[in-house]
Amino acid sequence: MAFNLGCVNQRAVLVANGGVYDLERHSGGKISSDPMQAIARNAELHEIAAGLAGAPDGALEAAPLGLCVPRPQKVFGIGLNYKAHAAESGMDLPTSPVTFTKFPSCLVGPTDDIVLYGPTSDWEVELVVVIGKRGRDIAKEDVWGAVAGLTCGQDISERTTQFAAKPPHFDLGKSFDTYGPIGPMIVSVDQFDNPDDIGLSCDVNGERKQESRTSELIFDVPTLVSYLSGICTLEPGDLIFTGTPDGVGVTKGTFLQPGDSVVSIIEGIGTMTNGCVERS
Ligand code: ZN
What is the pTM of this model? Predict the structure, then answer.
């Protein structure tokens, strides 16, 4: 049985029947309200989700979903992982995954504001993998079993900072506070007909900027998780932003402005709507 794991008022919830069910309550106190514990115990969520009975504790509209992975130990980003994006960036196709860090402090929820730190901040819609099981040297064929679920992410990128040093330091330009919206929830892998072929898109102020499918990834999810787990032990809640398709702003010299609305959509996961505001 599938589960959709979200967070409302810092408490883990299961999303079902148009509403939210408090996980601690509906697990009979077996799983705490901490979303990080819920992710670590994702194997048990299938049964709890299957047993949900009665009306939800709250309607989704009344209880907006917050940050579903509040304290991951590690957040990886992958650069140039779609051919068309590598081409628009004028870069050669990578021969191994171009990996950087987004510091966990940049993460915000699916409706939170993006606070702009300069005039050259850019959108990047991405599929985000949420690791579910502690593991090292995970074989490609075992990867989907080690994933708690999938969510949507925006790898917001301050291009001036990103390219201020040579070689560029991707990590800093992509780690400003609020530059990592994720959500709206973690969707269990069993809900996808093919988890390696998922549509994703990004609209800014109602205009379609990016649209692709994860089947276009140069390094797919099994390859990325296997590769990264060969370097460091992956922990439940660790996140991998898998890379963005073509259509980012920097190649056309257009960037996010205060008042802009960034809508990120991933098939089978949902929609995030993040407004852009000026830093006060
Ligand atoms: Zn990115």
Answer: 0.97
Say how many Å lie between the CA of residue 238 and the centre of ligand 1: 16
Cα of 142 vs centre of ligand 1, distance in Å, is 25
At residue 219, what are phi and psi to the nearest 5 degrees? Answer: -110, 110
56 shares its domain with 123: no
Between the CA of 111 and the centroid of ligand 1 the distance, in Å, is 19
* Domain enclosing residue 195, as ranges: 75-278
- Is 103 in the same domain as 13? no
Produce one character per residue of 132-151: b if its CB has 16 or more CB atoms within 10 Å, e if not.
bbebeebeeeebbebbbbbb
Residue 270 lies in a domain: yes
CA of 23 to the centre of ligand 1 (A): 32
Dist. CA 204 → ligand 1 center (Å): 16
**CA dist., res. 57 & res. 9, Å (int):** 13
Return the amino acid letter for 93. Answer: L
N- to C-terminal Cα separation, the chain: 45
**Digit-coded pLDDT (tens) for 87-112:** 998 988 999 999 999 999 999 999 99
